[in-house]
Amino acid sequence: MRGTALVYSSHNRGDRIHNDLIVQRALRGSDNKKILFLPMSETVQNGSEMERQDFSWGNFRFYFDFFKKHGLEYYPFYWRSSLRQEDVDKLWFDMVNAEVVILGGGHSVTGLRRYKELGARFGNGEWGKFGRLLHERQQRGKLTVGFSAGADQMCEYLFRETYDVGGDNKAFGLFRNVVCTLHHDPGRDSDLAHAARKFPHFMVFGLPNDSGLYGDQGVLPSGNWWQVIQFVIDNSWQFESDYWHIRTRRGAKIEHFYNDGRHWGFGEGDYIVRVQSPDNRFHDAWIVSGGRVIHYWTQQPSKYSSISEILASH
User: Fold this and answer.
1) Checking CA distances to 308, which of 114, 180, 284, 302 falls within 20 to 30 Å?
2) Residue 164: predicted pLDDT
3) Whole-structure pTM over 0.90, yes or no?
4) Cβ neighbours around 313 below 10 Å, total
């Protein structure tokens, strides 16, 4: 599958996620081989707007450096209170054209506010411009990636919306009607179960280090929304001293709770296929695992034999 959205949680830069899904996607780009990294969710530290952003970029830059000899181009765009129109015009251009855009980690609310304010200040008052450009990228088949806070921002809402903290939690929706926890551990399973009950037409996932959701979505000829999510487990990080931080190395799967309290754990290469009506009144789904197609709600074998057959029938 050639996905248009990847959200993930990781301790460091494992190859399954960062090489196979991110770097190689840029290197195979039809227009360019560029990765644009946005560390704008990082907070001010020691009075410096740049310190945390530069540190965050360094945690990715060292990995991308290995691929410079293959033609990979990679660069950050930093948030600054002193941004000028010409600075942000360059950002808009790069967001449209870069083969891969990465929303980095930090504080979900801080970054979401900054992204939206860029449109208000430098996009003719369009608060939603940043998100609109991300959706236009998706429609054109380009890949947008969210790491940690960036993953939270690429779902339908920030996960904090599930526990009534108030404020603007509406995220960018590159994974429609999905919310997730990052750096997930079993102590947060009750949060997932609560979110599933509160938003029954959503799907909620807990992403442990190192794991992610890789997917695509759109509208079928019938007018229904479709979404395909591939589950990614990255076991490629080689430093054993870090394994305590990487729960997938200890057998953790991507955790999911149904809105009726049932539980499912997803492993590498599993899929979910979803079909929803625009008003969310109709919502059906299927799990594809080990070559089997299982109806999501009944957990029984499906009459469909493939993802393409499911989509063609709705």
Assistant:
1) 180
2) 80
3) yes
4) 11
